[in-house]
Protein: Cysteine hydrolase
Amino acid sequence: MATIKARPFDFTFAPENAALIVIDMQRDFIEPGGFGATLGNDVTRLQAIVPATARLIAGFRKAGLPVIHTRECHAPDLSDCPPAKRTRGNPSLRIGDPGTMGRILIAGEAGADIIQALYPLPGETVIDKPGKGAFYATPLGEMLKEKGVRQLVFAGVTTEVCVQTTMREANDRGYECLLATDATESYFPEFKKAAIDMMTAQGAIVGWAATVDQIVEAIDD
Ligand code: C5J
Structure:
């Protein structure tokens, strides 16, 4: 057990029961020409968290703790992409349309893959998810139960969309959730701040927040 001076109050970290979930660090969100960029976003904001995210992943790997990666993507026939999702966004480049890195957000296409700098090691779990939350329509919940995980550390993009949705899903399922503030980012700085404020408010109503250094030091304790 280690104590992390987190927001909004100390987080009692039990690494032996913890896993890291790295949300959607995919080329489609982070590299020029991907889904995020086609929606008019500045992807350099997301690129800036790559070194801190790599340090967090390295800390978990060094301690032999589970590292789970997610990818937001859909089946090639789009059977898992509701029209209500597909018909929003950029009308000239929708999910499933051909982009510069293959079909946008489609499993198996180059753009849907995880960026090279954070690439999963052989044996690490990669969850493909059709929704914003990583529990919806995936085996994640069962897998965490099997591993006896009770605490989840979160990193990835974007803070207020897939990270926040997954943290809320996890919180409702009884996990203690800790967000690594410098290993998550949004295309909109004000949304990142608001998401962290909302989740940590009211006595950690969704969870806690701390920096990568704080979390890695606590793993090493
Ligand atoms: C979005 C995500 N923003 N991974 N996906 O569409 O946050």
